[in-house]
């Protein structure tokens, strides 16, 4: 069959700070290609809807598969599916990915017959079976693991047997030089491990993978990395280097092969402090940028988000990260409850630390515990606003005042970021990028005022809403953490599903707060 894989358009965030290759979709596409299907991929982060319509009309795929990792992309995907079905009524349309897995029936309902199936869970495992069913016995579609159709739902999706077996189909992406993060321009993405053993209340990474954690072999990582031409590599792991041994083994294999790249990664403060030597080693290998999830700057805030890292440890982690001599960015979650005074305190704190600070807004997502506890308070259920840059819970201050304070804070931080950028070393790097014709980051900087603008933010709330996120059915009585395990997309394998040693398992247990298995 002719199979077209589609990544939806950019979100607000992508227009300013970074834009990354659709790694998950490349993996699913490769699984389909290995099963001898003719495969193409279009990424609407860097190509237009007109490009998509042309491709549909010219190539006439039999099967169109949309990637829906982000909730905010749901309306765009539903509208594209409806338009596609009008052009190609005999085509089969499927939606998969992180957010689609948590909102499958709603997506089918919004599609009003245009979306034939939502395929939940890891796509590599399910896509081949689904394609077989569509090509052969269509009556068996609803029996495919992970498949949800209006006629029924298959068993829970299975995990990929060995992560090493499938490499991303990087060659299918047509504009590789468009992906970047800051001065890592261009930048590819790579996966060293999948899943997260912690259970933070605002996050759905752990519910998606049932608290499992799997690692790719160092050989497989090196083979993939060696095939990447871009000088930058974004490590997509939720928490990098949870297991020191794995971090060293991958690093040593890279060093043996003589690969030089500039790396970006995200990790937790307590992992950084536990595995200091690994991060020091990676600094030598080319680690240049790190993102640390601090989330809140007071103990109460951290408790709320269930990151059980004492605040002192977080600051210690920041100090260690600084000592590595790499650029460190941190994230603070703004609560819609914040008033002017709170914003002022945060601004002062942010100006005091040398790191780049990013502020996002507390947003309950389907698949998280905060969704179970907070969904009844939602001020809007417009999917497009669920991008952690808009307030979807009621704000204590009038919404316009909240955004005014938020944007003012972001602008102050942005000013600091710009000073950081003009530091001689970074200015040199930016200059080198421009000489090589890489202007992604420069263009993104120019976009800042257009994107972070109070009139635009308020206008986003005033748009007519065609698709609304449904609320979960009946009120639950169990503790939120017990209910969260029911949100798991894949069947949890318990301890056996976590490829970490016993001492790391104990460390995880001591630093997580949930009671899920
Ligand atoms: C790397 C990453 C990013 C990268 C972007 C990567 C990209 N180009 O898509 C960056 C840093 C840009 C990013 C940004 C954001 N992210 Co992000 N991100 C991640 C992260 C950590 C890993 C994603 C990844 O690459 N995984 C590895 C690949 C191999 O897996 P995958 O993409 O999930 O694909 C698999 C399945 O989903 C499925 N699949 C995917 N597509 C399809 C399609 C079909 C047809 C099928 C069948 C299956 C399928 O199969 C794939 C292979 O197994 C996830 C957490 C997580 N563990 O998923 C959060 C996550 C997806 N991000 C999240 C959020 C909130 C954001 C932001 C809105 C805010 C932010 N600051 O983080 C922005 C907005 C992004 C945007 N599009 O503008 C949330 C999603 C919330 C939601 N429900 O919408 C997540 C779950 C993190 C969380 N804490 O909850 N993100
Ligand atoms: S440590 Fe917490 S926030 Fe980070 S990926 Fe794991 S569960 Fe999500």
Write the layout of secondary structure elements.
Layout: E1 2-7, E2 18-19, H1 23-34, E3 38-43, H2 49-59, E4 63-67, H3 74-87, E5 92-96, H4 98-102, H5 104-111, E6 117-119, H6 123-135, E7 147-149, E8 152-153, E9 180-181, E10 187-190, E11 193-194, H7 205-208, E12 214-215, H8 218-226, E13 232-235, H9 244-257, E14 262-267, H10 269-274, H11 276-285, E15 287-295, H12 299-304, H13 311-323, E16 327-334, H14 340-352, E17 356-361, H15 369-374, H16 399-421, H17 424-435, H18 440-451, H19 454-462, H20 480-484, H21 502-511
Parallel strand pairs: 1-3, 1-4, 4-5, 5-6, 10-13, 13-14, 14-15, 15-16, 16-17
Antiparallel strand pairs: 2-9, 6-7, 7-8, 11-12
This protein binds cobalamin and iron/sulfur cluster.
Overall description:
By secondary structure, the protein is α/β, with parallel strands linked by helices. The chain has 21 helices and 17 strands. A seven-stranded mixed β-sheet has the order 3-1-4-5-6-7-8, sandwiched between helices. A six-stranded parallel β-sheet has the order 10-13-14-15-16-17. Strand 4, helix 3 and strand 5 form a beta-alpha-beta unit. Helix 1 (23-34) packs across helix 6, helix 8 packs across helix 9 (244-257) and helix 14 runs parallel beside helix 16 (399-421). The mean pLDDT is 90. The chain binds cobalamin (B12) and iron/sulfur cluster. Residues 196, 198-200, 203, 205-206, 238-239, 268, 293 line the site of iron/sulfur cluster. The site of iron/sulfur cluster has 11 residues, from helix 7.
């Amino acid at each position: 069959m002719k199979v077209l894989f589609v990544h939806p358009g950019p979100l607000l965030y992508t227009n300013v700070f970074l834009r990354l290759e659709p790694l998950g979709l490349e993996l699913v596409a490769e699984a389909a290609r290995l099963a001898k299907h003719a495969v193409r991929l279009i990424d609407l982060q860097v190509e237009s809807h007109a490009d998509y319509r042309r491709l549909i009309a010219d190539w006439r795929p039999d099967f169109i598969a949309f990637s829906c990792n982000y909730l905010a992309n749901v309306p765009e995907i539903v509208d594209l599916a409806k338009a596609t079905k009008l052009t190609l009524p005999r085509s089969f349309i499927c939606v998969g990915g992180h957010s689609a897995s948590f909102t499958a029936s709603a997506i089918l309902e919004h599609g009003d017959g245009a979306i034939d199936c939502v395929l939940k869970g890891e796509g590599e495992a399910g896509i081949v079976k689904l394609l077989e069913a569509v090509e052969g016995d269509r009556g068996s579609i609803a029996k495919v693991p992970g498949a949800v159709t209006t006629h029924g739902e298959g068993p829970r999706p299975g995990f990929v047997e060995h992560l090493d077996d499938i490499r991303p189909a990087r060659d299918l992406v047509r504009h590789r030089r468009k992906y970047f993060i800051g001065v890592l321009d261009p930048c590819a993405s790579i996966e060293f491990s999948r899943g997260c053993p912690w259970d933070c209340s605002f996050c759905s990474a752990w519910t998606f993978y049932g608290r499992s954690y799997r690692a790719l072999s160092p050989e497989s990582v090196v083979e993939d990395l060696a095939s990447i031409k871009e000088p930058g590599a974004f490590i997509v792991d939720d928490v990098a280097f949870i297991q020191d041994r794995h971090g060293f083994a991958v690093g040593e294999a890279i060093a043996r092969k003589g690969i030089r790249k500039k790396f970006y990664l995200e990790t937790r403060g307590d992992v950084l402090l536990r595995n200091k030597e690994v991060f020091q080693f990676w600094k030598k290998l080319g680690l240049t940028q790190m993102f640390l999830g601090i989330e809140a700057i007071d103990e109460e805030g951290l408790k709320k988000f269930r990151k059980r890292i004492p605040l002192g440890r977080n600051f210690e982690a920041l100090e260690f990260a600084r000592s590595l001599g790499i650029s460190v960015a941190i994230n603070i979650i703004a609560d819609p409850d914040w008033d002017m005074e709170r914003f002022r305190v945060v601004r002062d704190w942010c100006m005091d630390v040398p790191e780049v600070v990013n502020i996002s807004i507390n947003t309950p997502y389907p698949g998280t515990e905060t969704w179970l506890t907070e969904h009844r308070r939602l001020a809007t259920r417009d999917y497009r606003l669920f991008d952690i840059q808009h307030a979807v819970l009621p704000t204590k201050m009038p919404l316009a005042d909240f955004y005014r304070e938020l944007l003012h804070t972001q602008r102050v931080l942005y000013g600091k970021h710009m000073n950081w950028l003009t530091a001689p070393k970074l200015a040199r790097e930016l200059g080198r990028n421009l000489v090589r014709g890489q202007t992604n980051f420069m263009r993104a900087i120019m976009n800042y005022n257009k994107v972070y603008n109070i009139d635009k933010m308020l206008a986003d709330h005033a748009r007519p809403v065609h698709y609304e996120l449904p609320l979960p059915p009946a009120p639950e009585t169990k503790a939120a953490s017990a209910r969260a395990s029911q949100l798991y997309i894949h069947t949890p394998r318990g301890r056996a599903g976590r490829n970490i040693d016993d001492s790391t398992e104990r460390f995880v247990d001591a630093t997580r707060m949930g009671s899920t298995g």
